[in-house]
Request: fold
Amino acid sequence: DSNKCSFWIIEILLKNSITQWNIVFINLLRENEKGIVDQAIWGIGNIAADNVKFRDAILKVGGMKALIDVM
Reply:
């Protein structure tokens, strides 16, 4: 669906900008719509798996806590 495509495009664009994706994806975890939260989790996982620097950035900004909070 269009939400999945949108998140995929955002993920590709933000992979090179740690600060921007932190803001976008971590904030999306706070949404009330399950589909948006699911896609944000998926995006964070893909970005973290792509690069050690990005994984470390997720941990640095509290991304792990944010992911645990939505579970």
